[in-house]
Amino acid sequence: MPHLKGKTALVTGSTSGIGLAIAIGLAKQGANIMANGFGEIDAAIAAIKACGVEVEYHGADMSKPAEIQDLIEQTEKRFGTLDILVNNAGIQYTANVEDFPADKWESIIAINLSSAFYTSHHALPGMKKRNWGRIINIASVHGLVGSTQKSAYVAAKHGIVGLTKVTALENAKTGVTCNAICPGWVLTPLVQKQVDARAEREGISNEAAKNALVSEKQPSGEFVAPEQLAALAVFLCGPDASEVRGVAWNMDGGWTAQ
Ligand code: NAD
């Protein structure tokens, strides 16, 4: 029996990579899905629909608070409930602090961090009223450890881990839990861009750049699969995870154990 039948999940940035895998994972457990994000929208909707659930799409830009509020309101209006919120939308930019463009700083903080505040802010009243909710914030190993050239990303991901703990504590006596997932390298379009940049910079093949990237940081030498992260998200929404609260859960091939 799929354990999320009748629930509604909003997954931000679910047109690609980790977000799409999580939307599919939750849909396989019976949850109806509000999808969001840019790019390959039709393909993503079709892949989620193939799981036999209801799917709606809202193109809210996660850097815009008014659009985020509308996304939450439209989700509750369409499905009558919003039970699972996965804050996954994220972008990346690399430069040293002194070279980091201010507009990139602002947009990374807005999309990777502030959006999770605004979605939670608008979704929590309904979840608390129903005394059931799951908020999963997709952070990163960079929410736990630093890295050069990623100031905005590292700051945003540390911030979202902090927001996770506060949200979990404020709701600890309710049926609403909040946890973060901290992936290491996952070969999604976001990381593919970094692979391509490295291949060009170092004059090496794409395959060599991919292997160099993953083996430098992850003791396993393997990328984490989006489906493995989806399985963790499904677990965090399940009955056995009701006492998992305020956790930042790594899935990183051993990266942060070093
Ligand atoms: P991706 O580029 O494949 O997907 C990002 C998604 O976010 C897409 O659906 C995109 O359309 C959406 N998005 C981007 N800007 C948006 C905006 N302004 N409004 C709405 N949607 C927007 O990336 P991914 O690798 O799947 O990353 C997903 C999340 O996982 C991000 O938060 C990222 O920081 C995190 N993460 C990724 C890795 C990795 O190795 N890929 C590691 C750790 C954490």
TrEMBL record:
One of its GO terms (biological process) is monocarboxylic acid metabolic process. It holds the Pfam family adh_short. It comes from the Bacteria. GO terms for molecular function: 3-hydroxybutyrate dehydrogenase activity. Gene3D superfamilies: NAD(P)-binding Rossmann-like Domain. InterPro entries: 3-OHbutyrate_DH, NAD(P)-bd_dom_sf, Sc_DH/Rdtase_CS, SDR, SDR_fam. This is 3-hydroxybutyrate dehydrogenase.
